[in-house]
Design a protein that fits this description.
four-stranded antiparallel sheet, Rieske Iron-sulfur Protein, binds fe (ii) ion, Naphthalene 1,2-dioxygenase Alpha Subunit, Chain A, domain 1, binds FE2/S2 (inorganic) cluster
Length: about 350
């Protein structure tokens, strides 16, 4: 499906964010991930569990059942499954066949992020997780706050495309976090095996509207904005602002250094699980303020995604795109995702 080859949806062998850690509790959480129903919870010992969310008996959503200890009891005919996916109890018969089981997904919990591996469990290599330390997680002053977990009405690649072309900041977010320089500054890109990096170094750029009046200075600043895209769906962004080096008294002073994290996880074919959080050496009050001022900004990205999805669905065919220079990173990332899907197809 657009923008991938006919019949291709998403790579399965990769770590995607399934939830924020605090969302997993002693109750069932249902979420569609790569067009599969998934049900998640924590065991009494606190271990995060993700299982197939469809009861194999009559396909009732297991998320509409309940927990009995560490087991899920289906809400339709009461069949139970353990945290390993094995059926433990069928109320209407004595014998439980050993083959009566549901899929258990590999999970890796890192700080507030719960990653899931939808592909072959044998290939679930934790060395392939995003390098959170590279985004500041290892720094003693670094704090992270999860802000929003959203279900967006649009296919996931529209959100990846959005994050891989930050020139949109100047226009879609032109009244809040963006300035013209976000679009006019050339992008520097670097591609590694598992991560694509993008940076824009802006000189003498205006302070973004949302940050004006905060630093006792509203003149031109030096700014670096960028994003690291860890395949297949985790974007770690940075936005650093400092005083211009030639300022007579405050030259080079750091005014802000923010980290933003966007996780893009395919939901149904035309929906996305979108997780957003922020990090930095910030106080609770600063996090609270950022959570509020960024809410409408993220809503602008959600609106754009929703509108493009509506456009594609309504016209009913896959239109040709007229690419421009700023699409380079996005196009390279699409190619890599397609190559991951091709490889999986070949292996299967
Ligand atoms: S559908 Fe789940 S027990 Fe029958
Ligand atoms: Fe955006």
């Amino acid at each position: 499906m657009y923008p991938f080859k006919e019949g291709c949806f998403a790579p399965r062998n990769g770590w995607y964010v399934a939830a924020f850690s605090h969302e997993l509790r002693r109750e069932l959480l249902s979420r569609w991930i790569l067009n599969e129903p998934v049900v998640m919870y924590r065991t009494e010992a606190g271990e995060a569990v993700a299982l197939d969310g469809r009861c194999p008996h009559r396909h009732f959503p297991l998320g509409k059942g309940c927990l009995k200890g560490d087991e899920i009891q289906c809400g339709y005919h009461g069949i139970r499954f353990g945290a390993d996916g094995q059926c433990t109890h069928i109320p209407s018969q004595q014998k439980v066949p050993g083959s009566y089981r549901i899929k258990k997904y590999p999970i890796a919990e890192r700080g507030e992020w719960v990653f899931i591996w939808p592909g072959d469990p044998q290939d679930a290599d934790e060395a392939l997780l995003p390098d959170l330390d590279a985004s500041g997680y290892g720094d003693p002053s670094f704090r992270f706050k999860p802000f929003y977990a959203l279900e967006v009405e649009g296919r996931y690649q529209l959100l990846n495309d959005n994050l891989l072309d930050l020139t949109h900041l100047a226009y879609l977010h032109g009244t809040s976090i963006g300035v013209d320089d976000n679009a006019s500054t050339p992008e520097q890109r670097e591609e590694r095996e598992n991560v694509f990096k993008s940076r824009r170094y802006m000189k003498n750029a205006p302070i973004p509207p949302s940050q004006q009046g905060q630093y006792g200075y509203d003149g031109p600043v030096d700014r670096v904005a960028g994003m690291d895209f860890y395949f297949p769906g985790f974007h770690a962004g940075l936005d650093e602002i400092k005083m211009p080096d030639d300022h007579p008294t405050r030259g080079g002073e750091q005014l802000s250094a923010l980290r933003v994290f966007h996780a893009v996880t395919p939901g149904k074919r035309d929906t996305t699980n979108y997780f957003f959080g922020m990090g930095g050496a910030m106080s609770d009050e600063e996090f609270d303020g950022a959570r509020e001022y960024l809410r409408p900004v993220i809503e602008e990205d959600v609106m754009a995604t929703r509108e493009i999805e509506k456009m594609l669905t309504t016209i009913g065919y896959e239109p040709k795109e007229l690419m421009i220079a700023s699409d380079a990173g996005g196009v390279r990332a699409r190619r890599k995702l397609q190559a991951m899907m091709d490889r999986e197809e070949g292996e299967s």
